[in-house]
Amino acid sequence: MIPEAREVHLSRKDRKVLEACCRSPVTLQRDLKRARIVLLAADGRSTRSIAKEVGVQPRIVSLWRHRYADHGLEGLQDKPRPGKQPIYTKTTDKRILKLLDKPPPQGFARWTGPLLAEALGDVDVQYVWRFLRSHKIDLVARKSWCESNDPNFTAKAADVVGLYVAPPAKAIVLCVDEKPSIQALERAQGYLKLPNGRALTGQSHDYKRHGTTTLFAALEVATGKIIAPHSKRRRRVEFLDFMNSVTATFPNRKLHVILDNLNTHKKNEDWLKAHPNVQFHFTPTSASWLNQVEVWFSILQGQSLSGTSFTSLKQLQEHIDAYVNAYNDRAEPFVWTKKKVRQRRFKGRRITQL
User: Fold this and answer.
1) Which is nearest to 261 in space by CA: 241, 289, 240, 232?
2) pLDDT per residue as tens digits for the range 139-158
3) 82: which DSSP letter?
4) In this structure, are strands 254-259 and 278-282 parallel, antiparallel, or unpaired?
5) H-helix or E-strand containing 340?
6) pTM
7) Which residues of 84-120 are buried (b: 16+ CB within 10 A; e: fewer)?
8) Phi (first) and psi of residue 255, to 5 degrees
9) What does the mean pLDDT of the chain come to?
10) Which of 3, 131, 153, 318 could pair with 284 as two cysteines, CB 3.0-4.6 Å apart?
11) Residue partners of 313: CB distance under 8 A and separation at least 6
12) pLDDT, tens digit, for every residue of 70-79?
């Protein structure tokens, strides 16, 4: 049943607006039909005749006649409609974060998306993944850290950094350490051609061992040059032999040697008494990263040792020696950029000891 038709009275202003709407080529069809319905109703047309001319149901014409009569032009706009209520809310997000703070189920090393969804019970796994991505939470990536518990951390760190930033006049500052048990591995190497035509370099998982070598290294801080002989073992006697060769390289010079806390580096008072021009400086406990030679060992591994193959121990040693010579030809000192080194207590750490 069609409601009783409402009379429509248009003001000049409203008529101009509706007529402009009908003439505009960008007017939406729904707005065009509503404007025509109101204009025809204002001319005294019946509901059924308007419906036939505009091409809509009579109840639609009656709706917009009533809406305009009650609210004017604003009545021709769509009323806000409540959307679908979200399934998951901020409460769900808090539940996921709270669950991540708990240990994973027994037998699992870490949480995964399906494990989180299963533990929550009423949350789809796809939403769990979307939430983790939006908060940039990576369940697989792991960070490692090493905190120094040395009570004299600040003093030792300042001593080492002071040698880098302001070395003593007419003295040589050296960073010394060892890279033990470098293996001479023989692997089949070559190129692998993929079906799409792309060629990749690669090596076999199978290998043959040809022995190991220990590399002693002394980095001259001022120039960046390296002294790096080989040794079979890593005992105190080999360390002191290496230091003898280092002192011979810099005769009659004051040497400040930066070392980590390895046992073979300590309790060498007799040797130091015999070499009064040499002074040892030790990095704080669990802070060997302060020793610049560690940076060079990383460069050696990445540029010279990774992905290589050797048929003998001699070939490995010659390969390293060639790299050291090439490195020294273009050596530059490392630049210390951190202005302050201080020990800071970590409060509120989310570290769980299992």
Assistant:
1) 289
2) 988 777 677 888 888 899 88
3) -
4) parallel
5) none
6) 0.62
7) eeeebeeebeebbeebeeeebeeeeeebbbebbbebb
8) -115, 125
9) 87
10) 153
11) 184, 210, 211, 212, 213
12) 888 888 888 7
Residue 267 Cα to chain centre, angstroms: 42
Contact 122, 96 (CB under 8 A): no
336-349 b/e with 16+ CB inside 10 Å = b? Answer: eeeeebebeeeeee
Report DSSP letters for 261-281, one per residue. Answer: --GGGSS-HHHHHH-TTEEEE
Single-letter amino acid code for the residue at 177: D
Residue 202's SS3 state is strand
Q: Is the pLDDT of residue 338 over 50?
A: yes
Burial of 82 (0-12, 13-18, 19+ CB in 10 A): exposed
3-state class percentages of the chain: helix first, strand second, coil last, to nearest 5 = 45, 15, 40
Tens digits of residue pLDDT in 264-315: 999 999 999 999 999 999 999 888 888 999 999 999 999 998 888 888 999 9
Give the residue from 60, 6, 5, 50 showing the smallest Cα distance to 30.
Answer: 60
If residue 321 lies in a helix (H) or strand (E), which one and from where to where? Answer: helix 313-329
Q: What is the pLDDT of residues 212-234, one digit of tens each?
A: 999 999 999 999 999 999 999 88
Token code pair at residue 144: 């490692």
Alpha helices by DSSP H, 106-174: 113-120, 125-134, 153-165
